[in-house]
Amino acid sequence: MFGIYPGSFDPLTYGHIDVIERALRIFGRLVVAVAHNPEKQPWFSLEERVRMLRKATEGMQGVEVDSFRGLLVDYARKRGATVIVRGLRALSDFDYEFQMALTNRKICCDIETVFLMPSEQFSYLSSRMIKEIVALGGEVGAFVPEFVAAMLRERRPLSPR
Ligand code: PNS
Questions:
Q1: Which residues line ligand 1 (CB under 6 A)?
Q2: What does pTM read for this prediction?
Q3: Can you tell me which atom of ligand 1 is nearest the CA of 127?
């Protein structure tokens, strides 16, 4: 049995890495699946996010990084996975995660979602806030690996004139 850990990872944070490490302790094998989400406008392309995750997880036994388009449950089925892993940081995540897990269960009843709590030191972290900090010229070295911080600085949108 192995798990699929899907997400946007735009960008990857220490919170995501923490969830990957926890999931690996349970499943032994984990596919980290970067989603192509046409509704979101990511800072990084799918390929860049996959590269980011590969670099951050190199040396971690049992991790595979992949990407997918379309429905997550279709991808999970195609890969032969029966468990979806999601991180649950705080109560504020619950509504969205609950809705997503139950919808996925309704459309594909043989796949379960399990939630893992990242360490409390990462429980407030979000990719959205990290991008906001970078966009406003702040430092994010405490939240993401240094190479990700460098990629973010390079991608920083120009401030409006
Ligand atoms: O990191 P995110 O943005 O919270 O991840 C959300 C993600 C990618 C897991 C979710 O949007 C997803 O599964 N997208 C694929 C399309 C899909 O299956 N949608 C139905 C989910 S109920």
A1: 6-8, 35, 37, 71-72, 100, 103-104
A2: 0.95
A3: 1
